[in-house]
Amino acid sequence: MSYVKYEQNGFIGTITIDREKALNALNSEVLNDLEAVIDSISIETTRCVIITGAGQKSFVAGADIGEMCNKTRAEAQAFSARGNAVFRKIEKLPVPVIAAVNGFALGGGCELSLSCDIRIASENALFGQPEAGLAIVAGFGGTQRLARTIGVGKAKEMLYTCSKVKADEALRIGLVNAVYPSDQLMAECEKLAGKIAANAPIAVRATKKAINLGLQTDIETGVQIEAEMHASCFGTEDQKNAMTAFLEKRKPEPFIN
Ligand code: HXC
């Protein structure tokens, strides 16, 4: 039995964290299952991935507090490294990943959403980094990605105060791109994924790489990375197809790369 389900619908893959009785909290087994699913995704056939939580109430309510409670310092470090390794795989997945945040996104849940490219929330979504209240520091990337996503001041406020952020506030501070009623969340995420999947996959993948690598470096190196990614698309069938179609005033053939 796996705590993580995977469904493929056309070019779109949907990952569901399914440990509903614990509000999809991440224990070691869930992390292992999540990694196995991520590793199994085929870039040949998948152009966008959606990650969500099972049920109506929770995306992921954090790392499993029961599992963490009696950890030694070394065990805690290993658990943090384990989660970070899995979340980096998500961040580095060549195709875009959308977090469909369908409820609680607390601690490791907020951090999981931050490792995705885009966050879309349901109206009942609730974000937060409650770690300081549990007398620990965030351990799955929260101190790093939250600041990069919503800015240092807001991130520090969330991390120092442990205040919860509702969906409308998350939208206002740029933590999510859009908010929808719960019953429309998945359809809207699939629509967004479909728009991504309709563009040339080689270009979308190279764009993700350029943005992510560029964010880790200075602007001089960043624009060089972009130039390299830009050039890498030339000579591909999709590029010839798309540009020729424009010049011939017609729609391109479906993209293939
Ligand atoms: C383990 C959890 C859990 C968690 C919920 N559950 N969150 N178990 N770890 N993070 C379990 C509860 O124990 C309970 O199990 C069941 O899920 C339902 O939860 P309730 O509390 O009864 O639900 P509710 O009253 O609706 O409250 C929902 C909630 C609350 C507000 C989300 O569960 C909560 O505060 N959870 C903890 C959130 C949190 O602090 N997350 C950050 C963890 S630290 P039973 O068996 O009683 O039914 C973290 C660090 C990441 O994430 C980095 C690590 C390296």
UniProtKB/TrEMBL annotation:
<comment type="similarity">
    <text>Belongs to the enoyl-CoA hydratase/isomerase family.</text>
</comment>
<protein>
    <submittedName>
        <fullName>Enoyl-CoA hydratase-related protein</fullName>
    </submittedName>
</protein>
<keyword id="KW-0456">Lyase</keyword>
<dbReference type="Pfam" id="PF00378">
    <property type="entry name" value="ECH_1"/>
</dbReference>
<dbReference type="InterPro" id="IPR018376">
    <property type="entry name" value="Enoyl-CoA_hyd/isom_CS"/>
</dbReference>
<dbReference type="InterPro" id="IPR014748">
    <property type="entry name" value="Enoyl-CoA_hydra_C"/>
</dbReference>
<dbReference type="InterPro" id="IPR001753">
    <property type="entry name" value="Enoyl-CoA_hydra/iso"/>
</dbReference>
<dbReference type="InterPro" id="IPR029045">
    <property type="entry name" value="ClpP/crotonase-like_dom_sf"/>
</dbReference>
